[in-house]
Design a protein that fits this description.
binds magnesium ion, metal-binding, alpha/beta, 729 residues, ten-stranded mixed beta sheet, EC 1.1.1.42, four-stranded mixed beta sheet, NADP, tricarboxylic acid cycle, single chain, binds 2-oxoglutaric acid, 26 helices, binds NADPH dihydro-nicotinamide-adenine-dinucleotide phosphate
Length: 729
Amino acid sequence: MAKIIYTHTDEAPLLATYSFLPIVSAYAAKAGVEVETRDISVAARILAQFGLADDSLAELGELATTPEANIIKLPNISASIPQLKAAIAELQAAGFDIPDYPENADTPEAQEIRAKYDKVKGSAVNPVLREGNSDRRAPASVKNYAKAHPHRMGAWPSDSKTNVATMGEHDFKSNEKSVTVPADDTLQVVLTTKNGEKVVLKEAIKVLEGEVVDASVLEVAHLQSFLKDAIARAKSEGVLFSAHLKATMMKVSDPIIFGHVVKAFFADVFAQYGDDLAAAGLSANDGLGTILPGLDKLPNGAEIKAAFEKAIAEGPALAMVDSDKGITNLHVPSDVIIDASMPAMIRGGGIMWNAEGKEQETLAVIPDSSYAGVYQATIDDCRENGALDPATMGSVPNVGLMAKAAEEYGSHDKTFEIAEAGTVEVVNGAGEVLLSHEVAAGDIWRACQTKDASIRDWVKLAVNRARASATPAIFWLDEARAHDAQLIEKVNTYLADHDTEGLDIRIMAPEEATKFSLERIRRGEDTISVTGNVLRDYNTDLFPILELGTSAKMLSVVPLMNGGGLFETGAGGSAPKHVQQLVAEDYLRWDSLGEFFALVPSLELYAEQSGKDGAKVLAATLDKATESFLNNDRSPGRKLGTIDNRGSHFYLALYWAQELAAQTEDAELAAAFKPLAEKLAAEEETIVAELLAVQGKPADIGGYYRPDAEKTTKVMRPSQTFNDALAAL
Ligand SMILES: NC(=O)C1=CN([C@@H]2O[C@H](COP(=O)(O)OP(=O)(O)OC[C@H]3O[C@@H](n4cnc5c(N)ncnc54)[C@H](OP(=O)(O)O)[C@@H]3O)[C@@H](O)[C@H]2O)C=CC1
Ligand SMILES: O=C(O)CCC(=O)C(=O)O
Ligand SMILES: [Mg+2]
């Protein structure tokens, strides 16, 4: 039977679900629409590994390959090691019998435990569910709202010293090699060491005919000298030093690169005390947030701490995540995530926060040069032409290649920190070498796969989107890059399968595409960016954050390749700072627009899947209600005393009930919702007062990674009048 699966995730979106889902469920039930939930939070995924909870992620992963899939996926935590350890500790304290995260996996038992936790680590949800490519855009109503109510943009001085530093040589981009395999095959990755020993790094990689396979290596000696120069440059230019990585989705390579940044910044400390730190299990890859408290256990801990402090005092000023709490850019690998961090910096006028809590220009260090140029081009444009104007600017929607763990975001099981110098080769079933790299110890080597079927579907989606929106579409592909050169050939081939008459479809290298799109955006014109997986991620934060202030307001649809739909909510993350605010003062700033938008196509799909017209009516009325919601400016405010997430849900419920009561397509539904619409309208003042009354005091939700359901329900549904009205429906 058709059903909508609404996911329980983490942090702010989970809290919002406690308030919003009861509304959805109540309304859906009236129209005979089945809504079920599945818990894919990091806590539930840990418990599932040890048989203490259902493995809902595996279940949904399978569902996503079937036409029955209709999944609403809210943002979830992609846990770094420090977050994973915190979640484990919280679950243990709550009485769950689960093991510690093994620091040194030196026994088979410890290795097994580590393997289980590795399945939960990093971006472990999205790649499982994303059995399709992505179509993300700002709906017209949101774009119009943003133009009418432009958010604040920081000014861009023409002499801003903010820039991007990137390697440009000896990195993943410049060392990339790529082939398209001619037939189904099984590949192997083999390291032949200098003294002739063969080490199989990866056995049996299954590939399909037409699949694009790339390999590349980041040469660590060059990374280290690059970082040394970048640190010196930030110091001499008097700007902040900030590193921007994606330690969550690139869960193997980027924590290692982050560790190199930490070791470079604290080079003297690691030269002198590196052995002590290693012996204590304190890894640079986990950041200062783990190392500094860990020093308390060491006999010479105070001395090492003083050495860290000296290095901070003498180095360039570090960009801060939280200057009040002294949390730097180098504290936690997942605190600064490039897709959100770079746009936020650009939106602010090219500034980040320094240790005094003041704004300062920054050198944004993005070691690999594959996509760094997009940000440099945006910075250059802002420096030359001033900040973008949300009141007039056009839009850059995205069609992203993502299906079946495409490209870099599927590379973590094929990424290796090389133990010994030699040659790494990708060898096919016939024993022929397809790709080969010389490597040194410590280098980071990786391979990526992109299925032909995913590429075909992506090209189709781009053509459909260009047609539906009557907007030029640019494939952001660089013929000088090995992988992109393979893709360009395929794009040209597959475009010929479609009617592109009258469409403006071009191929441009990313920097050129950035400049082109920015020129158009400044003239108020829209340009679809058709990109690979990483730029999908980056662009769907970059442009929305500049255009709308946040990527939470995006419509984010994944038409699944086998039919069915995955509806992601917004394009941003789980906003951990919003949880802190809720706990401190019972105020949740999370904007659920992404959830509202996701629900409309999900209900439409449900109507198709089930043949129930009531679902269609629910969708059409929700669409209208969302428009009233925007016109009446009912998004959560930023300050106490204004309506927050819960208040915004009340207004959506009110407008939705009114639309349902007013529509004429389904008289039974109209009659069912009439009393509720009247009740909610009549009690508006009381309900809003009840919702506002709780603000300003701490709230107890009984856990961070696994909040207590009863306590959280109480916090998130504080209006008895509203709850009673819903219950009476
Ligand atoms: N799809 C997914 O599952 C994704 C998950 N993540 C995960 O989320 C966590 C945090 O990542 P991070 O990169 O900091 O991204 P976040 O989106 O959580 O944070 C960036 C900022 O975006 C704004 N924001 C995002 N969503 C909303 C919303 N609905 N309402 C209001 N404001 C919003 C806020 O900025 P401001 O104060 O400027 O308004 C927020 O502080 C990580 O664990 C990460 O892995 C990240 C991206 C996508
Ligand atoms: O899976 C993740 O960690 C984040 C996903 C993300 O940022 C995106 O898809 O835009
Ligand atoms: Mg993203």
